[in-house]
Amino acid sequence: MKRLFLSLFLISGLATAAVAQSAQYQDAMLKQTSDLDSNSAVDPTVLLAKANTFERIAEVEKTQWLPYYYAAYCQVMMCFVSQDKSKTDELADKASVNLDKAEALSSKNSEIACVRSLVASARLMVDPASRGMKYGMEAGQQIQLAKTYNPENPRVYLLMGQSLLFTPEQFGGSKTKAKTMLETAMQKYAAFKSDSAIAPHWGEPYAKELLSKAQ
Amino acid sequence: MLKVNLYLFLFIFLPFALLAQHKISGKVTDSKKHPLPGVNISIKGTYDGATSKADGGFSFTTDATGDQVLTAVLTGYQLLEIKISTDNAEQLSVILRNDVNALRLVTISAGSFEASDSKKGTVLKPLDIVTTAGAGADITNAIKTLPGAQQANDREGLFVRGGTGYETQTLIDGMLVRNPYASTTPDIPGRGRFSPFLFKGTTFSSGGYSAQYGQALSSALVLESNDLPQRSSASIGLSVIGVSGGLENLSKDKKTSWGVEGDYTNLSPYYSVTNPRQTPNLGPEFVTASMNFRRKTSSTGLLKFYGYGNWGKLGFSSPSIEYPGDTESYKVRNGNIYTNMTYKENLGRDWRLYIGASFSTNSDNINTDTLIKAPVPTEIRIQSTLSQSRVMFTRNLGQFSSLRLGGEYQYATEKFSFNRTPFNYADNYVAGFTEADIYFTPSFVGRVGGRAEYSSVLERMNIAPRLSLAYKLNTLSQFSIAYGDYYQKPEPQYIRFDHGLGYMKATHYIASFQRVASDYTFRTEIFYKKYTDLVKTIPNYNNNGKGYAQGVEIFWRDRKTFKNVDYWISYSYLDTKRDYLNFPKEVQPDFAATHTASLVYKHFFPKLATNLGFTYTFATGRPYFNPNLPADKFMSEKTIDYHALGVSASYLTTIRKAFTVFVLSVSNAPGNKQVYGYHYSSDGLRRGEITPNLPRFVYIGMFMSIGTDRRQDVLNNF
Predict the structure, then answer these.
(1) Residue B561 is part of which domain span?
(2) How far is it, in rounded angstroms, from Cα B643 to Cα B671?
(3) Within a domain: B474
(4) Do B8 and A9 touch (CB under 8 A)?
(5) Complex ipTM, two decimals?
(6) If you average pLDDT over residues A67-94, what whole number do you get?
(7) I need a surface site. Which of A109, B297, B384, B545 has the fewest CB within 10 A?
(8) pLDDT, tens digit, for every residue of B695-711?
(9) Structural domains in chain B (count)
C-alpha cells in the first residue's frame, strides 16, 4: 500500500515536473522567438545574446530541434548584419553544427534546409569571386530541398525572391520575377499555420519590405 | 505515512522554494586579463545564464540553489566548468584559456605562395591566375607577377631567384611533368600546356620547399587538380586564334565523373593581318585533347586520372644576321602525351596513403638553317619519355604533428639525333624521403626532413637535408625560416655528351615575415642561395661552376581600401652572379634583372557587369653577351629597362541559358619597346635585337558555359 502510494506520488510528481519543464521551455522559447522580426533583431549583440540563450536551452532540452534551429538562425543572421566578414566562417561553422544537431532530431525539415541555404549564402559573401560557384550552388540546392520538403513554407519563397531581387539582371536576376515570387511568399505567409507559437514564423515583415523594393 | 507526507509537503512547497532567486555575476577574461565579450555563461542543467558584455562583465539570476556548476563557452577557448555556490556567487572571476584551433595554428610558409580555396589565408585564389590582365590565362605568366620570379619573357619557364628556367620543376598531384611548356622556336617562349581551370590549388615555391620534391635547384610549381565537379556542364569558347569545347559529366550518385576537352588553335590568320618580326612558314597550329576521370572510391578515397595529348607545328623565317640579305628558317613539329593517375585513401589508425603513376612522352622534330651553313639544312630530333611511380605514407602524430615517408622511381629515356647521328641515354632514378612536421606548441612548428636520391646515368647518390621553422606571433602574423640542400641532374644536352657529370647543388637560406588578414596580405622575405657544382663547358665538361643569389622581396595585396578593387604589388631585389657554362668568370647572368616589380589591378563595375584590369610590370635591364668586348668585360652591358602594361576587360552576360563572358585583352598595350638581348653574327660585326615577335597581342574571345552557373564565379573577377 505504502509502495503504491509512493509510486503514485512519484508518477504524478514526475508528470508535474514534466509539465513544469515544458511550460518553462515554452515560456523561454516564446520570449526569445517573439521579437525575431523586430528591429532589435538586427543588432549583432542582441543576436549573439539570443544565440547563446538558445544554446543554453538546447543544452538542457536535448530532444528539441527548435533551440538548435534558432541558435543557428541567430548565428547566421549575425553574419549578415555584421560588416566584419572575418567572423563569418566561425559563425557559419557554429550554425552548421547546430543545424546538424537539429536535423538529427527532425529530418527532412524544410525550415532547417532554409537556414542551411542562408549559411551557404553567408559563406559566399566572404569572397564571392572564389566561393560563388560552390556556395551559390549549395544555397540554391538547399532552397530546392526546402521546397520539396514543404512547398507551403513561405520562407522558401522569401529567400528565392530575395535572391532574384539582389542578383543583377545579367546574371538571371529580375525585379518582375522577384515581385511575383515575393507575392507568392506573402500569400504563403497568410495561409501558413504554425505547429505552435514557437515554431519558425519569421520573415513576413521582411518579405513585405522586399516587395516594396521590387515594385 | 510520514514519508508520503514529506513528498506531499515537498510538492506543495517546492514551487515557492524555487522562487528564491540568486544573483550570479562576475567578469570573464583571458589568461592575460583581457576582457572577453560574447562568452556564454550558464548554470549547468538550467536555462539560466547570460552573455558577457564588451567589458567581460555578466550578471543574471537563477532559481537553482546550493552547489552548482557554472559553465563558460567561447569559440577559440577551452570550455570552463567551475563549482560555485549560489549563495555566494557575485563578482566571480572567470578566466578562459586559449583553445587550439586552425586559426591559431602556425603553418610552414617560408618560400611558398599558395593559391587555393581550401585553406584560409592563402595569398592568391585559383581564379586570380585566370583573371590577371596580361597573363593570358597562363599559370606561369600569372606567377610572374609574384615576387621572386623574373620577367624573362624571351624564354619559357619560371626563372626564380637567380635560377634558370630548368631549375624550376612543375608537378601535378605530386607527379613530375617533364615538358610543361609547349615546344616553340628560339626567342618565342612556349605557353604552359595546362589550363588553370584544371587546378584547385597552385603553390609557387621560390625556395626552401619540402623534401617531398627533388630535382629542382630553385623552385617548385606544385599543381593540385580538381576533385569531382559540382555538376555536369558543357562549355565552348571562340576567339581570334581558335576554338575550344568541353564536357564534364557527374554521375547521379555524385561519386564518379568524367570530362573531355578539346581545342584547336591556329595563329596564322592572326599573323597574316599583323606584322610579326618573324614571318610564319609553318602553322602555327596546335590541336589539344584531354580527358579526365575521377572516382570517389569511399568516403575518404579518391582516384584521379588525367590524360593529355597535344600536337603542334610551327615555324618562322627571319632575316639572317650571319648572312645579310638572307633569311633563316626554324621549324618544329611537336607531339606530347602526358598521363597521370593518383589514388589517395585513409588507412585508418592515423595513416594515409598516396600512390601515383605517370607516363609522358615528348617528341620534337626540328628543321633549321639558323646555324652556320656548314651542313645545310640541320635536322634535329629529340624524343624523351618519362615513366614514374610514387608512394607516400602520412601518419598523424598527436593532435597536429605528422610524419611523411615516401619514395619514387623514374625511368627516363632521352633520345637525340643531329642529322641522324644519335646521342641517346636512359636514366633510372630512385629517391626516398622522410619529413616530420612537429608542433612544439600550436604557434611554433618545425619541419625537419631529408631526401636521398640515386641516378644511374650519373652513377651518384645524394642526401639533401631540409629544415623549416615557423612561429606565429598572433592570429595574423608569423615569422618563418628555412634551410635546405637541393640537387639536380644537369640538363639533358650536357649529360648526353658527357656521362661523367655529377649533380648540381644549391643551398637555400630564407627568412620571412607575413601578415595575412581576410582582406589584405603583407609579406617580405630575404634569402641567400649558394650554387655549387654547376655545369661548365670550358675547358671541357665539368662540375666546377658556382654562384650565388641573394635578395629581398616584398608583396602587398589589398582588397579593402577601394571598393570593388583588388590589387597587389610585388617587388624583388636580386643580387646574383654565377660562373657556369662558357662564362670566363663569375658575372650576373643574362636572365637576371636586379629590380623587378609588378602591379596587378582589378576593378569590377557591378552596374556594367564588367571587369577592368591592368598589370604593369617593370624590370631593370639584363646583361647581354657582346663578343666584341674583352673577357674581363664579359656581360658588362645591359639592355634597356623592361616595361609592360597588359590591359583586359571582360563583360559578363547570359545568352539564353548559357552564361557568357566576352573578353578583350591586350598585352603591352602602349607598345613599349622591349629588348631582351642581342644575337651577334659570328664575326661580331652585326647584331639583331631579341624582342617579342609582335609588339602587342590583341585577344578577343567569347566563352559560354551551359549547366554550370559561373555567374558568381566571375562576379568580382576576370
Answers:
(1) 112-377+553-716
(2) 9
(3) no
(4) yes
(5) 0.84
(6) 89
(7) B297
(8) 888 989 888 888 754 44
(9) 2
